[in-house]
Backbone:
């Protein structure tokens, strides 16, 4: 495919596409933290200033690679505003409000793509860790050694909720009122965030 | 594609394939309960006795359509053997033992397929409800009106676990020891099975 140029808009569509393609490779192969704007610019054959011109910050460039129109950084303060003990409930409510909104279509498409494409799976993994989970967990005053497991458990329940509600569409989860799901899932997410993760002594057998 | 006949094995491969194709349509369109062996045989252009000859029971035919080599009915008694209060922990342990085993490859393939294919998604939904969740929940002495939500919630956490461990491969869930995940997830599954699903009065705002 070749990019078409209309000559009407500033910038060249193929430059933007080249930057995006290089960014996808960099974020998937090296991870969000290790990928640099400079290296992405070099791979795309452009000046780093052009990357900033087209996409702004590294976070914004990353969101463009996964085609997510939502900035988690704008939503997360509300999740944390009522203190650690309500973060679980607020996270479920915020998650549902995004996925139930028109922007949710992009999230469902990303989830479908992650399942069939290893690179997209890596991008989703990086997005979950660096843009969502880490930003919540770093505010909760927890043992740093526990954060990766807590984050992955939160992710497992929320991704599972998305699978059931939007992909497999298992009733009554598929069409339940958001508050029904908030009530059912909030204690789960709260425990994964701040509660005990090890069980009482296991039963014999 | 045409089926090849070797002449070595009893039965004709194309008959078996025709029955399987008809069964996939019937289970996806009508659901497991409403689909009948008789209607599947008619759609495949064979005698119902041939369906039983090739596949045995309706359950076995259904498992063949989703290519799952495991019979949940054989595993579930162990989940329930220690009573309702340990069903959550035992269900997580059994789930992981199946998905971590060689048979887990078929389950991951089915999950991937369900995400990209609406018919497979319907078959997975039917499989979850009729072959797994219903068989557990009917032994737990619960309010029948709550069973669908409880089942779907259990499914959401287990599917999410499978997504994180086997598809998106988010660490440390991807390579955690099974017992670490059992300890973390058992209280969740137990509450979805037998605990309260509605929250304390919601906070204002």
Residues:
């Amino acid at each position: 495919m070749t990019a078409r140029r209309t000559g009407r808009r500033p910038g060249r569509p193929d430059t933007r596409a080249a930057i995006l393609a290089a960014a996808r490779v960099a974020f998937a192969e090296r991870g969000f933290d290790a990928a640099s704007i400079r290296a992405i610019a070099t791979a795309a054959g452009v000046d780093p200033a052009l990357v900033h011109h087209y996409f702004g910050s590294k976070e914004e460039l990353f969101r463009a690679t996964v085609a997510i129109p939502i900035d988690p950084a704008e939503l997360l303060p509300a999740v944390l505003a009522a203190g650690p003990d309500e973060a679980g409930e607020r996270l479920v409510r915020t998650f549902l409000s995004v996925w139930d909104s028109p922007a949710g279509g992009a999230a469902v498409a990303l989830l479908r793509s992650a399942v069939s494409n290893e690179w997209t799976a890596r991008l989703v993994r990086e997005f979950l860790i660096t843009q969502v989970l880490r930003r919540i967990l770093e505010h909760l005053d927890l043992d740093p050694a526990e954060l990766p497991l807590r984050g992955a458990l939160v992710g497992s329940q929320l991704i599972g909720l998305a699978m059931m509600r939007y992909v497999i569409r298992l009733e009554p989860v598929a069409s339940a009122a958001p508050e029904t799901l908030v009530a059912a899932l909030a204690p789960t997410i709260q425990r994964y965030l701040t509660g005990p993760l090890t069980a009482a002594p296991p039963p014999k057998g």
Notes: Residues 1-9 of chain B have pLDDT under 50 and may be disordered. Chain B touches chain A through 51 residues (CB under 8 Å). Chain B is about 65% helix and 0% strand.
